[in-house]
Amino acid sequence: MMVLFNTKPAARLASVAGVLTAAASIFAGRSIQVFLPVVNYFCFWTALCFAQRGFAMVSRPKMVFLDKLCISQDDAVLKQKGILGLAAFLDRSKKLTILWSPRYFSRLWCCYELATFLRHSTRQSIEIMPTKLAVLFFGMFCSTQFMSLVYVLLAAVLADEAAGQSQRIVEMVTISGLMSIAFLLPAVLCLHAGIGVAGSIGELENQLRAFRIQNCRCFCCSVDHIHPETKAPLPCDRELILEAVKKWYFEDISSPQERAWEKFNQTAQQELLPLVLDSVGTGLCMSYFSTLVWAASLPSLVFWLPAYIENEHSFEGFHLMVWWVRCCMHWVTFPLGILWYFQVYWWLCLLGLRAEKCWQGKRKLISCLLLLPLFFFGIGPTYVVEFTRAATETPSLLPVLPFSLLLAAVFSQRCRLPGARSTDRRKPAQPAEQKKEANEVVDATIHANLPRCDTAADGDLVSWTF
């Protein structure tokens, strides 16, 4: 939830703090510069954890209905009222965020929530975030932030002794060697975890292609409609939900239920499958990861900007312009390299997933075998850019060539899901406006069985999350 709703506000605040601390570092001494990045980290992590509380002080924050927290889990009466009011909350929500786990499409109430939202909305209002992928991204961000700090500190220490071109090359070799050693163990662990996450995302696609609401399970049927503690009879939620789906997705309510259910199954596949293929691979997830990488790179400005300005006095005219071009490339290379590294990492995770199907139970071995190509193809391009810069002096623009290739590679490539095919842009079952009009006749019947929650009518909910 923090990644979904607080990442971008945190990055904006960190950007402002980064610019201010970088400006302050120009006039501060070395003893103070060391502590300035703490301001960036403090601003970012504070906003990441408490951004919405801060918005609440000055404006209306985003409101999120998270069913696990907003529906009482202890009071049976309140829990029943909350469940019966789900349709009302969904009708007032602008966006549906699915925190996906492997059990999601097998739970009947989750499918009911999806059916309720899809009858008035389209896939543009839905986003899917696999929970394991969010955890993996956040873990990689933390390691990226740590590696960024280590890199800057090593460069700052060695830069004092690097006077000439040969010394700069020695500096780069030393930093590269130390960073590579620190890279080994985390890379193996990330590959091992990434292969499992790639398998989960592949399972998400397979679940959608084979989705049938008739096969979903609910609690009441699993206990034979007898409460396990009170032994009181339980009404069948399955019959009520499937009847609601029939009335929402088939105008002729006297038709066989199978036809109505199949219509919803087809609608869910047509709406969600393109969303999964387009966004889960890189679209939605990579947008958040790119924001996190940007935030991780900002504190380094505190160290680099004073060094850039200190050495610019040796140049003027065209040479000065080339100097600042090289400085910009130097600072941007790290976040670009991280984004390229993650794309290569994800491709290798997909390759490792296929290899695991052939070598069952050999994931640790596969992770170790993938370490070498991850190092050469993932980190290699960044090293090429940095070595080219270190081996040349102003006014040489030779580093622009490998930097441009790295930039083009980052923004032209997209990770794909395992076994993903081209998105099938089939015509949706019905446009959202037509579906809303077609369902107005049957809404009164449904709401008689599933009463609306009056508290949801006070204002629009920005997001519904489950």
From TrEMBL:
Transmembrane stretches, start-end: 38-58, 133-158, 178-202, 288-309, 329-353, 365-385, 397-417
Protein name per its UniProtKB record: Uncharacterized protein
Keyword Transmembrane: yes
Record bears the keyword Transmembrane: yes
Alphabetized UniProt keyword annotations: Membrane, Transmembrane, Transmembrane helix
InterPro entries per the UniProt record, alphabetical: Toll_tir_struct_dom_sf
SUPFAM superfamilies, per the entry: Toll/Interleukin receptor TIR domain
Region (Disordered): 420-439
Compositionally biased residues, Basic and acidic residues: 422-439
